[in-house]
Amino acid sequence: QVQLAESGGGMVQAGGSLRLACTASGRTFRNFAMGWFRQAPGKERVFVAAINWSHNYTRYADSVKGRFSISRDNAKNTVYLQMNSLKPEDTAVYFCASPARPYLMITNQVGNYYGRGTQVTVSS
How many CB atoms lie within 10 A of CB 111? Predict the structure, then answer.
């Protein structure tokens, strides 16, 4: 059974930083892409960032490029999202995600496992 567990959310002032972590279990972590989505109050869940299974390709939503960085540690079965220069519009519940099939990059919301989410609140 695949499980994704997020941590690291919290409250921060605008301009501050947070690092989210997601630990996966239930399958061979290194064979699967990992990513992050977020859902702001009253809005749909949207893509934030993703990293492929072999560490050599990442992609970001335009809204976070240059501010957020995704990385992974296969020895710890963990993916990270470093968030810098946070803005109030980054306030959302952040969800860890991973495709159901190995070696596929995350391209949309369909076909992924998701964690329960962690709240990030950025005050102005």
Answer: 13
- 108 pLDDT band, cuts 50/70/90, is confident
Cβ within 8 Å of residue 46, ≥6 positions away: 37, 38, 39, 61
The length of the chain is 124
Three-state DSSP state, 30: helix
CA 79 to mean position of chain CA atoms: 8
- List CB contacts of 44: < 8 A, sequence separation 6 or more: none
Contact 122, 90 (CB under 8 A): yes
Please give the backbone phi and psi of residue 89, each rounded to the nearest 5 degrees, phi first.
-75, -5
Q: What is the pLDDT of residues 88-107, one digit of tens each?
A: 999 999 999 999 999 999 98
What are 52-61's contacts with CB under 8 Å, separation 24+?
A: 52/105, 53/102, 53/103, 57/105, 59/105
- pLDDT 10s digits, 55-70: 789 999 999 999 999 9
